Amino acid sequence: MAPQTEIPQTVEWQGKQVPVWSMQTINYALLLSQDPAEVEKVLNACLEEGYFYLDLESIDGGRMLRDQQETLELMKRFFAAPIELKNEYGLISSHLGYEPVGSRTGAFGAGTKDGYEMLKVSRDEIQRGSPKVPQPVKNNGDLRILENTIGSCNTITKVILSALSTGMNLTGAARFENTHRNDRPSTTTLSMMHYLPSEVTGNNKVGHQKHTDISSLTLLFSEQWGLQVRPPGTCGALEMGFVAPKPGCAFVHVGDSLRFASGMKMQSCIHRVVPFNPSEHRYSIAYFLRAEDDTMFVDSEGRYITAGQWHDEKFKAFTDPWQWQAMAPASMILGGMKEAGEDDPTGEPAQFAPNPIALQEELKKVSVQA
Fold it and tell me: Residue 14 falls within a domain, yes or no?
């Protein structure tokens, strides 16, 4: 694995300079043509870093960019609706339904909760005759938008997956796309997230916790700052740093399932979301392409398990109280990825810093209960 050695640019955040890590840019139109140089480039990005920009500014990717904008408008309408309408079905399953703010651990770990609400629509569900989606988006126009976006995301991630199979010289049943077939059950889902201003949520409900994704590939759209990654390799303290939104591009992350399927050759992207501008409403769209439920692989604990089992166990870890997460192996939340530095050598922003004495007392209580 080639280390991240370049000196990063920085941006001011919470009164200090924070790295802005670079990403390679992969051309989607060239991938679609299986251009040998671009196939090699995307493979190296996944083997060495676990993330990249995907340039969609072409006739082939333009449809996805239009779908993104329509989905963004849908999200703004949906999240402005009353809570009783948004939460009509609640969280039906881990990959379908609505999650209110504060359902998971927050960006700064112990003592914080997340600062976003989320609507999830699975690929399997949107194809049903009457999909279970909340009333504010259960109309022909919005259902069409969701179908189009899920369809576009599925095509794009399958093109990437196919290129990676080709780059690794996989053939026949060994190719990655053969465990991501459209007609087989999976937890593949479209997640739409709305991060609320801190004046609404308070300082203890903020961002999205540090983690790697369950998925094989994550196709992520956000026009606003807030996403931070930790690059593999050695460059300074390797703290979390921002990645800049890039017009016409999506972020792509390698997730745990593809890392496992590649025999641990690929890097799962360690990332989190923080409030770059605490006063703004932040929106992001993430398509999580996941392997078929019965796909088998060796996980970060050395177990031979199904993709469905890994999904269920890790989702539970995501939603566990921080006290339980503190006692769980890092191989679950971080998918076995190793950390080589501090999250933030100079400390987290003061307003989000938890009371260490109170945290110790909470851990003692949980230890006794366990």
Answer: yes
Q: Is the pLDDT of residue 245 over 50?
A: yes
φ, ψ at 288 (rounded to 5°): -100, 100
Q: What is the mean pLDDT of the chain?
A: 88
63-75 pLDDT tens trace: 999 999 999 999 9
Comparing CA positions, the residue from 294, 289, 302 lying closest to residue 255 is: 289
The structure's pTM equals 0.90
Q: How many CA atoms lie within 13 A of 212 on its CB side?
A: 35
Q: In the numeric block, which tokens belong to residue 193? A: 């997230």
pLDDT at 344 (0 to 100): 52
Asked if the structure places residue 235 within a domain, the reply is: yes
Q: How many domains does the chain have?
A: 1
What's 62's domain CATH number? 2.60.120.330
The answer to whether position 156 is within a domain reads yes
Range of the domain at 75: 9-369
Q: Would you say residue 1 lies in a domain?
A: no
Distance CA 223, CA 158 (A): 23
Mean pLDDT to the nearest integer, 234-255: 85
- Asked whether 287 and 150 are in contact (CB, 8 A), the reply is yes
**Distance in angstroms (rounded) separating the CA atoms of residues 129 and 131:** 6
What pLDDT is attached to residue 370? 40
In 83-139, which residue ranges form alpha helices assigned H by DSSP?
A: 83-86, 123-126
Which parts of the chain fold into alpha helices (H)? 28-32, 36-48, 62-79, 83-86, 123-126, 140-167, 198-201, 256-261, 307-319, 322-327, 330-333, 356-369
Task: Name 310's bridge partners.
Answer: none
